[in-house]
Amino acid sequence: MKELLSRDDFRKSVFERDGLHCAFCSKPAVDAHHILDRKLFPDGGYYLDNGVAVCEEHHIDCEMGRITPQQIYEQCRITEPALPPGFKQGIAYNKWGQAMSEERYKYPRTPHFPWSPGFSGDDERLADVSQFEGMDIVITEKLDGENTTIYSDGYIHARSMSGTSHPWQAWVKREMAPAAQDLPRGWRLCGENLYGIHSIEYSKLPSFFFIFAIIDNQNIDLA
Fold it and tell me: Dihedrals φ, ψ of 120, to 5°?
């Protein structure tokens, strides 16, 4: 039986196991990352074998799924990961709990800048932006819609992964079906669905759907 830790003890234990440094480089650790999303666990998932010490850069890689749970387990020598109820040892899950063979993926949250307004407790926030020093930065304005993923077989879901159909998704599914059918198997389109009005009502849009990612069957963003 694995020991459930408090939030503070989780961070302390993960840091101590990984030598106070990021598990993927020599930089000092700045956070204890949940390998499988804590929301998958009824108790929050604060288990030592569900954590890894990370620097700011590798924390983003883990959150975006660029570093998989399986890669983390190998790096940290975790042979029996802490899993949510109903999950089975030996099955490869992504961070959001989908078995990798299912070919359905939740689009990850994009971290906010430290000074971003409208930040809520459920949002990710960068601790600082020093990692971007000396780099060319492209700043874009986020559209106020619903994050939507479309697969070549016509399956569509928002970030919730429920697959529940809503009236405002019908337009996107109908209009994007021809483009989605041309995708190779295992590829997907990700974009912002603006058909339903959220806090901003747009006018004179060239389309209700704006694609921001084309992701291949290796889970690599090509856009």
Answer: -120, 170
Least Cα distance to 145 among 93, 77, 99, 212 occurs for 212
Joined together, the tokens standing for residue 207 give 């389309």
Burial of 8 from C-beta contacts in 10 A (0-12 / 13-18 / 19+): exposed
Rounded Cα gap, residues 118 and 104, in angstroms: 30
Identify the pLDDT of residue 197.
Answer: 85
Residue carrying the six token digits 């399986």: 70
DSSP H or E stretch at residue 148: strand 146-151
105 closest CA partner among 151, 59, 70: 151
- The pair of structure tokens assigned to 83 is 């899993």
For residues 189 and 175, give the distance between their C-alpha atoms in angstroms, rounded to a whole number.
13
CA 128, CA 159: separation in Å to the nearest integer? 26
- Distance between CA 27 and CA 21 in Å, rounded? 6
Q: What pLDDT digit, counting tens, does each position of 151-167 carry?
A: 877 778 887 665 556 77
pTM: 0.52
Residue type, 62: C
pLDDT, tens only, 135-146: 888 777 778 888
DSSP-based three-state secondary structure for 181? helix
Alpha carbon distance 115, 135 (integer Å): 19
How many other CB atoms are found less than 10 A from the CB of residue 126?
17
